[in-house]
Amino acid sequence: MNEQIEATNEISLFDIYKILKSHLLLILIFTLIIGGIATVYAYAIASPQYKSSAYVMVQVQVDPVSDTYDLVNAQRLLATAKDLISMPVVLEDVISDLSLNISEGHLKSGLSVESSTTSYFITISYISEDPVLARDVVDAVIESAIDFADANVSILANNILRTSSAKLGTYDSPNKILYVVVGLILGGIVGVGFAFIKELFNNTFRSKDQLEAAFGIQVLGVIPEFEVKEVL
Length: 232
Hints:
Layout: H1 2-8, H2 13-22, H3 24-45, E1 49-58, E2 61-63, E3 68-69, H4 71-85, H5 88-98, H6 104-109, E4 111-115, E5 121-128, H7 131-152, E6 160-162, E7 170-173, H8 176-200, H9 208-215
Antiparallel strand pairs: 1-5, 1-6, 1-7, 2-3, 4-5
């Protein structure tokens, strides 16, 4: 008997359609509210972040006269040079040179140092709310790293070459359109979920089969759904 009741209580695709249709306004409200919150955050609350980048090259010159280079050793020194650029001693020097009122850890959190196994270039980037500061930090990091390598790291001395200068930071984040789209999608999901939860607590019978299974009686007739139209 219980199995029969459970079978008749299963929700069909048509039932799902009816649930969504009957709660369409509720779903739209949730979608607009959460989408609106995401829009306000993206355009009015979230601080814009600006990114500036520049490049250095690791090279090992063998003979200045013939202008030949040791590419194998240059590739080997790439990882060492990359680690040097983000070392605390370099970042502390940058903080001192630019008179920044931030910690070394805070400076490092916005700094990105990337290299590739297929080239000899290292990309130094910095993200900040100030586009000018983003540019100045990148240039200062490169200068400090080169000066420190030339003075203290013999294997890197004169082997790190600046190949570009940083430019004024360009807009990097947040992705405002993505925030709005995600907010609308999330709002729709929350609205649909709320509609199904509301329906889950609805203990009314949806069909005569459910009535017959629950009470063991035979339903003689049902009144179909209809809409009452006003007569003008």
